[in-house]
Write a structure and sequence with these properties.
By secondary structure, the protein is an alpha/beta fold. It is built from 19 helices and nine strands. It is elongated, with a radius of gyration of 31 Å.
Length: 484
């Protein structure tokens, strides 16, 4: 076969490979929506979209080779104002961010296989699993196709020494092994084990339980000093609501939003994080509060396809009066409902509007006063093995805690600072003995309710204004009458 015939055969084979790869990409990464073909919402959607554009640009340029023997000179100089294959390859180089193309393709493919619920069936190798894995193998062979095209370009361009348009390092981009190796079209047990390991490594949620959502990406979040739910004391009704909500969601029984309201420091954030971490199949997503005013659908769709996980989207420290609730109303109980494996928790220091409360489950922390302080201390002592209750000890501890607050050892009266105090109490044997001795005295200090009232009044006035104090006085009256 002469050089001309070899050239034609090589171009034809390459065009066939590109067409086949493009078909597999459309099969794996697109779906029909409202009569139009759209890319599914995977984490690496922009990458795979640009990769398909690259293949299309290469295919278009290959058409020119037969008609124009000098078309390979596009490697050296721009031949048209429209973007060509070199422009597309340079963008692909940027999109890979230093990773081999084979790795980027694998990560995108694993994203799609998760959406198609294929990775859960690798052990029994259903017909669907074999079907999609074969198409995945064709996609992941793309580095070899692009390398062949660049070699053809260089050969067609000849020995011109002018500055090339192709980015330096492109050859490194095309290195790397493809894990989808199917000799004779068969999927071996070794390949299956490799795919399982690669799928785990490619899963952005495999590295932790909590992730911040920043600029469309999921970043692992370090959550320090989070106590387990077994270390929460007091606020029994609130804890029951949290327990029921997160337990039901973990079992896919309910995904109603949880709307949490309280004064600062009572536990909204801590409860939400701790109850999410309690359940192995729950993953915490932490967007910015202002993300609540943006369309939720792009975020939710990225999570919806991962049926092996359930996601809590937690909007913390939200000011309901300053939020435009349009997208929340549209996405919760509106035209777009939440998928079963996604739930939303919103925490605020302020009350939620009635039309928002009606779309979820509301939980409100009562104010922290001397009664709830004593309840927390009682439960803490029981958890530490104190079998016989000593009410006087609870009173002495509460009074000492208030004394520390008065001496500005703590910045607030709240469950948050009481826990810190109790941890100090537990570790200080001399302190524990001294306070136990105090309970045997005829007269000993007791917690002053007025200190709690004054602190809460000041805090509520700073947040809500003077008119809210009527509500605080009403709550105190109800408690005194035994109706709260």
């Amino acid at each position: 076969m002469d050089d001309s015939a070899t050239r034609v055969s090589e171009i034809s084979a390459l065009k066939d490979s590109l067409t086949a790869a493009g078909s597999s990409i459309r099969l794996l990464f697109t779906g029909l929506k409202n009569g139009r073909t759209e890319f599914i919402n995977i984490f690496r959607r922009d990458f795979i979209r640009n990769y398909l554009i690259t293949l299309d640009k290469i295919s278009a340029d290959l058409e020119l080779f037969s008609a124009d023997p000098k078309s390979g000179r596009r490697l050296l100089a721009i031949s048209s104002p429209a973007a060509d294959s070199i422009d597309a390859l340079n963008q692909l180089f940027i999109d890979c961010r230093g990773k081999p193309l084979s790795q980027c393709l694998e990560e995108a493919v694993f994203d799609a296989l998760i959406i198609h619920d294929i990775l859960a069936h690798l052990d029994d190798l259903t017909d669907d699993a074999v079907f999609f894995i074969r198409h995945a193998a064709r996609i992941c062979s793309g580095a070899a196709m692009i390398a062949a095209f660049i070699a053809l370009l260089r050969r067609e361009a000849g020995g011109d020494n002018r500055l090339l348009r192709l980015r330096p390092g492109m050859d490194r981009l095309l290195q790397g092994e493809n894990c989808f190796k199917l000799p004779d079209g068969k999927i071996s047990s070794e390949t299956m084990e490799l795919l399982k390991r690669k799928a785990l490594a490619a899963d952005p949620f495999s590295g932790g339980k909590a992730f911040r959502y920043l600029h469309g990406a999921f970043v692992p979040a370090e959550l320090t000093s989070i106590r387990p739910v077994e270390e929460f004391f007091g606020y029994g009704r609130v804890r029951q609501t949290f327990e029921a909500h997160f337990r039901d969601f973990s079992r896919l029984k309910s995904n109603l939003p949880l709307l949490v309201c309280s004064l600062p420091g009572l536990g909204k954030t801590h409860f939400t994080i701790a109850y999410t971490l309690k359940y192995a199949n729950l993953t915490l997503i932490l967007p910015e509060p202002e993300d609540l005013e943006k369309p939720l659908q792009p975020l939710v769709e990225k999570l919806a396809g991962r049926k092996d996980r359930r996601f809590i989207i937690f909007f913390d420290d939200v000011d309901p009066a300053k939020i435009n609730w349009y997208y929340f109303r549209a996405n919760v109980g509106g035209s777009f409902s939440l998928p079963d494996n996604v739930s939303i928790v919103i925490a605020s220091n302020f009350e939620f509007p009635a039309n928002i409360l009606s779309r979820g489950r509301a939980v409100r922390f009562p104010v922290f006063d001397e009664i709830r302080c004593l309840e927390m201390i009682e439960e803490f002592l029981k958890s530490r093995g104190l079998k016989h209750r000593n009410p006087n000890l609870e009173l002495v501890i509460a009074a000492d805690y208030i004394e520390d607050f008065g001496q500005r050892k703590f910045e607030e009266l709240s469950p948050r600072t009481l826990i810190r105090y109790l941890q100090i109490y537990q570790e200080d044997m001399k302190k524990r003995k001294r306070m136990l001795d105090m309970t045997r005295a005829e007269v000993f200090a007791k917690p002053d309710p007025q200190v709690f009232y004054e602190f809460n009044a000041k805090l509520m006035r700073s947040l809500y204004g003077d008119e809210i104090l009527d509500a605080l006085q009403d709550e105190n009256l109800k408690r005194q009458l035994g109706t709260l």
